[in-house]
Amino acid sequence: MHLPELLLRLGLSVFGGRVLAEPTVRVLRSRVPKLGQNQTEKERKFALFVARLIGFAERAITKSLVIWAKPEQTGLFIGGWVALKTAGSWGSFKEPQDHIQRGYQIGLLGNAISFTCAIAAGSVPLTALMALPPLLIERLIR
């Protein structure tokens, strides 16, 4: 695989996933009452920044595994990653609060969209990928 193709796949994985996952998660989170209401604007912006960085990293790693590793290694990474994120959020499940559980479920949906974009960017034929950049650029400009 040549460098331009790798860069195209990486760009589609990282930024294409953002175009699909972030708006979906944002709309769903806005529908959950109490989610993030105790945060200041600065804390909300920082949380969004961290979520974007995590999304970029997980899509880049997943795309790389799809291209260079065996499929079971990609599945192992995704399973381990979701398990780590679940373990990190475990304390928030001690008190059964519906809005916290919904927020976590929305995050998992974002993960699923993110991983799907990364896997598609790593495995779709190059001819199909070449048609996508104008559509993504148009979406990012709007």
The number of E-state strands comes to 0
Strand residue content: under 5%
N to C succession of SSEs: HHHHHH
**Count of spatially separate domains:** 1
**Which oligomerization state do the chains in this entry correspond to?**
single chain
Whole-angstrom Rg: 16 Å
Number of helical segments with 4 or more residues: 6
Largest sheet: none
Q: For the record, give the distance between the C-alpha atoms at the N and C termini, rounded to a whole number.
A: 32 Å
Helix-strand category: mainly alpha
List low-confidence stretches: none
pLDDT averaged residue by residue = 77
Explain what the structure shows.
The chain is mainly α and 142 residues long. The protein has one domain (3-141). Helices cover 81% and strands 0% of the residues. The chain has six helices and no strands. The protein has helices at 3-30, 41-68, 71-88, 98-123, 126-130, 132-141. Helix 1 packs across helix 6 (132-141) and helix 2 (41-68) packs antiparallel against helix 3. The longest helix has 28 residues, at 3-30.
